[in-house]
Write a structure and sequence with these properties.
The chain is mainly alpha-helical. It contains 22 helices and no strands. About 7% of the residues have low confidence.
């Protein structure tokens, strides 16, 4: 399910606030008031034929449909009726909503009609449940729909301007009602506002949500700066900001693709160990024995005066590292056959709200990647406290924190988490990275406000940030390409997909293992002879 609040639910929230809305006039309270259990405003009152139809002071009805049709605005089953955008706009003015919330509701009304009719061929009494269509869209279909959704900002600007001038009481301080409601917006700035609201999917949120309130606050702040700026600065700022939003979205998608490909490769490795783990361990042990013998032999040849203790002391650190790798292989092989859950097991929250879940994963990934990027890492508050030696190993340690843990491999095909990193796994990775940096909880979310006190400062910040984002995108694409073209994984996948050859592959493993053991024994004999 997507993160979305239906128009009907938004309208109900606004209706419920009628009696506590400080902007509601005394006249409105006298006409539409609660009587016992009867609500002040009901769905039927959206119909122009209702005895207490919602209307402005001049008698103009809010709704343009009869009550029988208007009440079906809230019926999201087969009998749904889409409210006209003009009716929604008039309702917003009747309820004294500001421009931004009114625009979000009008866009939502047009979006629901467009997504149902144009994208899903929904028809009344023949199109199924509208709630399922709105909430169950996959991300690909949603992106395509948003790219095709063109609500025409100029048309909406004219509509809201005309309705505001007709139905909002004339404010003394500005002289014109439409200018007060539009908060100084021109057709050009209004078009930009519409595009930004759509690009951020802000019309998906509830009208009274914190997300929409956050967007409105920053939109107003930026508009105030735009009003004071030069035409060149305004134009450049609009272009750079649109680019910034697009680059961030592209980078988020790339990071998610990278992690999901890493998980896919890990699944292949797990399957490989399930089938060939025993043979892989035997070969790795033989290779390790051979390499250790080769190192000892060459060290003695290069340093004839060294004792056996000198040689062992010299190779101790490297040998410990190799033994750890072998130990990890043994553990992974032992776990591999058990890392499958039964298809009947509960899939959890992530199975019922995939788009919301993916969005949360992207947020955590964005935080992780900001901490990992070298240019950003060097400005981290903790970075200056590391020694040069620690700085050299820091990137390796941080990247290892992103390693896929065994518990992330336990989901069967068909489950969301079989094909993508788990939110819990990513949060754990973020915690490990923050622990390494020694500054847990530092704000690394990229959804920070555009920095700068003036428009030129904000423009400069955007230009610098966009250059960094472009570099990060290039690096992410290269990282993804390496994962996609990994020859070892591709070879393993090809072998696994051909079970008929498995016994031959195992026999080949055994032959290579035996050969390495013989080579190791030969080197050991030559090494021992050097001490005689």
């Amino acid at each position: 399910m997507i993160l979305y609040t239906k128009l009907g639910d938004d309208l109900d929230t606004i209706i419920k606030s009628f009696e506590i809305n400080p902007a509601v006039t005394e006249r409105q309270k006298q006409i539409w008031r609660q009587a016992g259990k009867k609500k002040a405003i009901t769905h039927d009152m959206f119909g122009y034929d209702h005895e207490k139809a919602l209307a402005f002071d001049d008698g103009t009805a809010v709704g343009s449909m009869k009550s029988n049709s208007a009440r079906r605005f809230w019926d999201y089953a087969a009998g749904h009726v889409f409210p006209p955008a003009e009716d929604v706009a008039r309702f917003c003015l009747f309820m004294h909503l500001d421009l931004y919330r009114a625009l979000a509701l009008v866009l939502k009304a047009e979006w629901e009609r467009f997504f149902a009719h144009d994208m899903n061929d929904w028809k009344a009494n023949n199109g199924g449940n509208l709630t399922d269509i709105l909430f169950d869209a996959d991300e690909h279909d949603l992106r395509e729909a948003l790219s095709r959704f063109q609500p025409q900002g100029d048309r909406l600007f004219i509509l809201l301007t005309e309705l505001a001038s007709r139905h909002i009481p004339l404010p003394v301080q500005t002289g014109t009602a439409d200018k007060s409601f539009l908060e100084g917006h021109t057709p050009a700035t209004f078009r930009s506002l519409v595009n930004e609201m759509l690009m951020g999917r802000h019309h998906f949120y509830a009208t009274e949500s914190a997300e929409l309130a956050h967007f409105i606050a920053h939109a107003r702040q930026e508009f105030a700066l735009l009003v004071e700026g030069t035409e060149d600065h305004k134009r450049a700022f609009s272009l750079e900001k649109a680019k910034w939003v697009a680059l961030r979205q592209e980078l988020e998608e790339l990071y998610l693709l990278i992690e999901n490909q890493r998980l896919k490769n890990a699944h292949t490795y797990r399957e490989w160990l399930t089938v060939f783990g025993k043979e892989e361990i035997a070969l790795r042990e033989a290779v390790l024995d051979y390499e250790q013998s080769d190192i000892r032999y060459n060290l003695k040849m290069a340093n004839p005066g060294w004792t056996l203790q000198d040689i062992e002391r010299y190779i101790k650190e490297e040998e410990t590292k190799r033994q750890l790798e072998l130990s990890r292989l043994r553990t992974d092989t032992a776990l591999a056959p058990h890392l499958m859950r039964r298809p009947g097991e509960e899939n959890g929250k992530e199975g019922t709200e995939p788009t919301r879940y993916i969005k949360e994963c992207k947020t955590v990934l964005r935080q992780i990647r900001r901490l990992l990027h070298p240019d950003r890492l060097m400005h981290h508050p903790s970075y200056k406290h590391f020694t040069e030696g620690q700085k050299e190993r820091l990137q390796e340690l941080l990247l290892s924190a992103l390693d896929i843990r065994p518990e992330e491999l336990g989901y069967p095909e068909g489950y969301l988490l079989h094909d993508m990193r788990s939110l819990e796994g990513l949060k754990n990775a973020l915690s490990r990275i923050e622990a390494i940096l020694g500054n847990p909880g530092i704000d690394t979310d990229e959804r920070l406000t555009i920095k700068g006190e003036t428009l030129p400062e904000k423009l400069g910040w955007l230009q610098r940030e966009n250059r960094i984002l472009e570099d990060e995108i290039l690096a992410a694409k290269a990282e993804l390409q390496v994962l996609l073209e990994d020859e070892d994984t591709a070879d393993k996948r090809a072998i696994l997909d051909n079970p008929a050859n498995h016994e031959r592959i195992k026999a080949d493993f055994e032959a290579r293992t035996q050969n390495k053991r013989q080579e190791a024994e030969s080197l050991k004999a030559q090494f021992n002879a050097l001490f005689e």
